[in-house]
C-alpha cells in the first residue's frame, strides 16, 4: 500500500509540471504579456516597444521564459492584473477565495445531507414511492442546466416570494456577530442549492447503487444470519463499504464543482473566484486567467491525489500491482 | 426466443432491468443488435425520449416554415415588448422576435451538440483504441494525458481558449468543445478494450494473422459498440448544456445568432428576469427537454445493450 502511495505521489509531480507547461503554452498563445500584466501597446515607438520587450524578458528563448515564470510562481508572484490597473493577481484571488470556498462547502453540505439518506432509503426500499420520486428527481437534476435553475430560483423565491436575496454575499458591512453569520448563510441558500443540484442527483444515484450492491453481498447475509439488527447491519457493515466510492467520487467531482461555481456565481452575481474568472475572460485579463487556470488545475490534481490515496487506505481489497 | 421473452419484464421501472438473462445458445435467429433493439423498444422512458427528441428535431428542421419573423432582424421600435398577437413571446432587448428565436435556437443546440459529440467520439475512439489495444507505455502516456486534461475543468479550459481566439464561429466553437472533452470517452473505450484484449477471440484473430487495424475495427469496436453508443448519447446532452452555458455567460455563439443560451442570457438583466418570464423560460425549457429526452434515450440504450448494467 505504501508503495502504491509513494508511486502515486511520484506521478503527481510530473503531472504538476505538465500542467504548468499547458498553462504556459496557453499563455504564449495569448497576445501581449500574459504573465506580468505589463501592457504592451504596439502603437508606441518601435524602439521603445523593443526595449520594453527586452526588459520584460519577452525576447528570451521560450525555455528561459518558462523557467523564469516558474520561479516567480514558486515565490508567490503571480503577476499583475491588467484590468485592475496592476493589482497583484495573488491579492485578487485571495480576496475572492473565501467566498467561493464557503459556497462550495455549503453546496457540498446540501448535496451530502440530501443525497446520502435518500440514496440509502431508495436502496433499502427499492420501487417504493420515494425511490421513484428520487429517480425522477435524478433525471430532472441532471437535465436542468444549473444557470436555468438559478434563474428560476431567483424568479420564484427572490422576486415573487422575497424569501432570499438574489445576489451578493452580505447585505451590509455593518452587521456583526451572529446576525452577520445568518445574513451570510441567507445569501448562500439559493446559490448553494443551485450549485449542489447536479451533484445531489449524481451522488444519489451512486449511493443507491452502492448500497444495493453491498446489501447483496455475502458478508451482509452472514451479519444478518448471526442475528444483528438491521440497523447495525446498515451502519456497521453496509454504510462503511458503500461510502468508500462516494468519498472518492468527491475527489473526482471537484472539477465539476469548479465549473459549476463559475456559472452559478455569474447567475447570482456572487463575488467569488468564478465571477473573477469570467470577468477576466471578458476583459482578456490574461495574467488573472492563467493564474486561475493553474490554481484550479492544482486543486483538482491534489483532489484526485487525495481521493486515490484515501481509496487505497480505506479499501484494502484494492490491490495494485 | 420464447424463453427469452418470458424472462423480460416490461421495463416500466427506470431502474432495474430483468434478472439474469442468459442468451440461449441454440437460437442463432436474433443478433445482439436485434435483441438490444427489442429491449430498447420496451423501455417506455426511452420511447418518450425519442418522441420528444424527434419533435425537437422536426421543429429545428422546419424552423423556416414555423417561425413568424426573421430571428436576427432587430426592430428598435419594439424593444422588450411583452407578448402580443404579433409576437407570441414578445421581443428581446434588440426588438427581435422571441418565438422565432426559440425555434431557430433548437437548430444551433442540436447542431452544436451533435457535431461536438461526433468530433469528440472520433478523438476518443482513436486514442482509447490505441491505449486499450496496445497497452504498455503508449497506454500510460495517453492515460496521463487524460489525467492532465481532466485536471483543468473543461468549462475553465474552454473559456481560456475562447479568450485567446480572436473570433468565435460555430465550427471553431465545436472544435474547442471537442478538444476539451475527449478524456472521459477515451477512458471508457480504453477500459472496454483492455478487457476485450484478454479474451480468446483476440488470440484467435491474432493466430489467423489479422492486422491490428483489422482486429480493432472488425472485432473490438463492434464489441464495444454498446458503451460507445451509450456514452456518446449522454455526451451529446452534456454538450448541449455546455454550449448553452457558454452562450449564457456571453462567451459562446455570438449574437445575433439565435441560441437558447443567448436567449437565457437576457435574463441576467433583472428587468427582463422579473417582468418578461416569457422571454427566457421557454428557452430554458427547450434545453431542459432536449437534454432530458437524450438522457432517457441514453439510459434506455444502456439497459438495452447491457441488461445487467444497473446491477453492476
If you had to describe this structure to a student in words, what would you say it looks like?
- Chain A has 321 residues and is mainly α.
- Helices cover 75% and strands 0% of the residues of chain A.
- Chain A is built from twelve helices and no strands.
- In chain A, helix 8 packs antiparallel against helix 9 (230-252), helix 9 (230-252) packs antiparallel against helix 12 (286-314) and helix 11 runs antiparallel to helix 12 (286-314).
- By secondary structure, chain B is mostly helical.
- Chain B contains 15 helices and no strands.
- Classes of the chains: A mainly alpha (321), B mainly alpha (312).
- Chains A and B meet through helix 1, helix 5, helix 6, helix 7 and helix 10 of A and helix 6, helix 7, helix 12, helix 14 and helix 15 of B.
Keywords for this entry:
heterodimer, A: 321 residues, mainly alpha, 12 helices, B: 312 residues, MetI-like fold, 69% helix, elongated, disordered N terminus
CATH superfamily of chain B, called what?
MetI-like
Q: Which stretches of chain B are poorly predicted, pLDDT < 50 over at least 5 residues? A: 1-14
Record field, number of beta strands of chain B? 0
Please give the share of residues in helix of chain B: 55-70%
Question: What form of chain B results from the Cα inertia axes?
Answer: elongated
Q: What is the number of helical segments of chain A per DSSP (H or I, 4+ residues)?
A: 12
Specify the overall morphology of chain A: globular
Distance between the termini of chain B: 25 Å
Query: Major beta sheet of chain A, specifics?
Result: none
Number of strands of chain A: 0
Gyration radius of chain A, rounded: 24 Å
Indicate the CATH class of chain B.
Answer: Mainly Alpha
Amino acid at each position: 500500500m505504501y508503495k502504491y502511495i509513494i508511486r502515486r505521489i511520484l506521478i503527481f509531480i510530473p503531472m504538476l509540471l505538465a500542467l504548468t507547461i499547458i498553462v504556459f503554452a496557453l499563455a504564449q498563445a495569448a497576445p501581449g504579456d500574459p504573465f506580468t500584466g505589463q501592457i504592451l501597446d504596439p502603437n508606441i515607438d518601435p524602439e521603445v516597444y523593443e526595449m520594453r520587450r527586452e526588459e520584460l524578458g519577452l525576447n528570451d528563448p521560450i525555455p528561459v521564459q518558462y523557467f523564469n515564470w516558474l520561479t516567480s510562481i514558486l515565490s508567490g508572484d503571480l503577476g499583475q492584473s491588467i484590468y485592475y490597473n496592476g493589482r497583484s493577481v495573488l491579492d485578487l484571488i485571495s480576496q475572492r477565495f473565501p467566498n467561493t470556498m464557503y459556497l462550495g462547502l455549503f453546496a457540498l453540505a446540501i448535496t451530502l445531507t440530501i443525497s446520502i439518506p435518500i440514496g440509502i432509503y431508495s436502496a433499502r426500499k427499492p420501487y417504493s414511492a420515494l425511490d421513484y420520486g428520487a429517480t425522477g428527481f435524478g433525471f430532472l437534476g441532471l437535465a436542468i442546466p444549473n444557470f436555468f435553475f438559478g434563474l428560476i430560483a431567483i424568479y420564484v423565491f427572490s422576486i415573487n416570494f422575497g424569501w432570499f436575496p438574489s445576489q451578493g454575499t452580505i447585505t451590509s458591512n455593518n452587521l456583526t456577530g451572529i446576525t452577520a453569520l445568518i445574513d451570510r448563510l441567507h445569501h448562500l441558500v439559493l446559490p448553494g442549492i443551485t450549485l449542489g443540484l447536479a451533484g445531489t442527483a449524481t451522488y444519489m444515484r451512486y449511493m443507491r447503487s452502492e448500497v444495493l450492491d453491498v446489501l447483496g453481498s455475502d458478508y451482509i447475509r452472514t451479519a444478518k444470519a448471526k442475528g444483528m439488527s438491521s440497523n447495525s447491519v446498515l451502519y456497521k457493515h453496509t454504510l462503511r463499504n458503500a461510502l468508500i466510492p462516494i468519498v472518492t467520487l468527491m475527489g473526482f467531482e471537484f472539477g465539476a464543482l469548479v465549473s459549476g461555481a463559475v456559472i452559478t456565481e455569474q447567475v447570482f452575481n456572487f463575488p467569488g473566484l468564478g465571477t473573477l474568472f469570467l470577468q477576466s475572460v471578458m476583459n482578456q485579463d490574461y495574467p488573472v486567467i492563467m493564474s486561475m487556470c493553474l490554481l484550479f488545475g492544482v486543486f483538482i490534481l491534489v483532489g484526485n491525489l487525495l481521493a486515490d490515496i484515501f481509496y487505497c487506505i480505506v479499501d484494502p481489497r484494492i490491490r495494485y500491482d | 426466443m420464447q424463453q427469452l421473452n418470458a424472462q423480460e419484464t416490461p421495463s416500466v421501472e427506470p431502474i432495474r432491468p430483468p434478472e439474469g438473462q442468459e442468451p440461449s445458445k441454440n437460437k442463432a435467429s436474433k443478433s445482439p443488435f436485434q435483441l438490444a433493439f427489442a429491449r430498447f423498444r420496451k423501455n417506455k422512458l426511452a420511447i418518450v425520449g425519442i418522441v420528444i427528441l424527434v419533435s425537437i428535431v422536426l421543429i429545428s428542421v422546419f424552423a423556416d416554415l414555423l417561425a413568424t419573423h426573421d430571428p436576427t432582424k432587430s426592430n428598435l421600435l419594439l424593444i422588450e415588448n411583452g407578448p402580443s398577437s404579433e409576437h407570441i413571446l414578445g421581443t428581446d432587448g434588440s426588438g427581435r422576435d422571441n418565438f422565432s428565436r426559440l425555434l431557430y435556437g433548437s437548430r444551433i443546440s442540436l447542431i452544436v451538440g451533435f457535431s461536438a459529440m461526433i468530433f469528440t467520439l472520433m478523438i476518443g475512439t482513436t486514442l482509447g483504441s490505441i491505449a486499450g489495444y496496445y497497452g504498455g507505455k503508449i497506454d500510460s502516456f495517453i492515460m496521463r494525458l487524460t489525467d492532465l486534461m481532466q485536471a483543468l475543468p473543461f468549462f475553465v479550459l474552454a473559456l481560456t481558449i475562447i479568450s485567446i481566439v480572436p473570433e468565435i464561429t460555430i465550427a471553431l466553437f465545436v472544435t474547442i468543445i471537442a478538444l476539451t472533452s475527449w478524456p472521459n470517452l477515451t477512458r471508457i473505450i480504453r477500459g472496454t478494450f483492455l478487457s476485450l484484449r484478454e479474451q480468446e477471440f483476440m488470440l484467435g484473430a491474432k493466430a489467423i494473422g489479422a492486422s491490428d487495424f483489422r482486429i480493432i475495427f472488425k472485432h473490438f469496436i463492434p464489441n464495444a459498440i454498446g458503451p460507445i453508443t451509450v456514452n456518446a448519447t449522454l455526451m451529446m446532452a452534456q454538450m448541449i448544456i455546455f454550449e448553452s452555458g457558454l452562450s449564457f455567460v456571453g462567451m459562446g455563439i455570438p449574437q445575433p445568432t439565435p441560441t437558447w443560451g443567448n436567449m437565457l442570457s437576457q435574463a441576467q438583466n433583472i428587468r427582463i428576469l422579473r417582468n418578461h418570464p416569457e422571454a427566457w423560460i421557454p428557452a430554458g425549457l427547450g434545453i431542459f427537454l432536449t437534454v432530458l429526452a437524450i438522457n432517457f434515450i441514453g439510459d434506455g440504450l444502456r439497459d438495452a445493450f447491457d441488461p445487467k448494467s444497473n446491477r453492476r
